[in-house]
Amino acid sequence: MSISIIAAIGKNNELGKKNDLLWSLPADMKHFRETTRGHTVVMGQKTFESLARDENGKQIGRLLPNRRNIILTQDKSFTAPGAEIVYSVNEVLELLKNPNEENFIIGGGMIYKLFIDLADKLYITHVDGEFKDAEIFFPKIDPDKWQKIKNGKYPKDDLNKYDLEFAEYIKKI
């Protein structure tokens, strides 16, 4: 079983505010879709709910297409038809038994904290910006534990208002 984490973070590990992203970055969304398509994604209930809104702007959630969706929650009454609902890290790990499959932890902040020490690989989009109003942060990427093995630059443009770095890290043995 392989556990990978995928996230976009600001210069100070910023992730979000009020259960939403701090930015709109089509290049990062494309990278996310291409990287996770065909794989299992694990997310918290709040992240799931943030994926879609109703006509009044209320977060209602949606499954990510072409992926196996696992949602980790503490709410025993929570439902999401088509998703697998679990209540602990151990239950997630039980579902990720296939040794040949790369599985992705996609957020949010609490879920990243629960899985960072269990992960084998990080796919991090470094956003060249600081976001003072951020409320949710990614765990520190400890250089004693993680080695950057790949990076690609994506300069800001009309649609992406920040320079981006698509980096990959592997856990040091």
Task: Describe it.
- The structure is a single chain.
- 18% of the residues lie in helices and 33% in strands.
- With 173 residues, it is an alpha/beta fold.
- The protein has a single domain, classed as Dihydrofolate Reductase, subunit A (3-Layer(aba) Sandwich).
- An eight-stranded mixed sheet has the order 6-5-4-7-1-8-11-10. It has a three-stranded antiparallel sheet with strand order 3-2-9, with no helix packed on it.
- Strand 4, helix 2 and strand 5 form a beta-alpha-beta unit.
- The mean pLDDT is 95.
State the CATH topology.
Answer: Dihydrofolate Reductase, subunit A
Using the CA coordinates, give the radius of gyration.
Answer: 16 Å
Structural class by helix and strand composition = alpha/beta
Would you state the CATH class? Answer: Alpha Beta
Number of domains: 1
Elements, N to C (H/E): EEEHEHEEHEHEEEE
Q: Report how far the terminal alpha carbons are from each other.
A: 17 Å
Helix content: 10-25%
- If you average the pLDDT, what whole number results? 95
Strand order of the largest sheet: 6-5-4-7-1-8-11-10
Name the quaternary structure. single chain
Residues in β-strands, percent: 25-35%
Shape: globular
Tally of separate helices: 4
Looking at the overall shape, the CATH architecture is 3-Layer(aba) Sandwich
The CATH superfamily bears the name: Dihydrofolate Reductase, subunit A
Taking the sheet with the most strands, its summary is: 8 strands, mixed
The strand count comes to 11
Low-confidence segments, given as residue ranges, are none
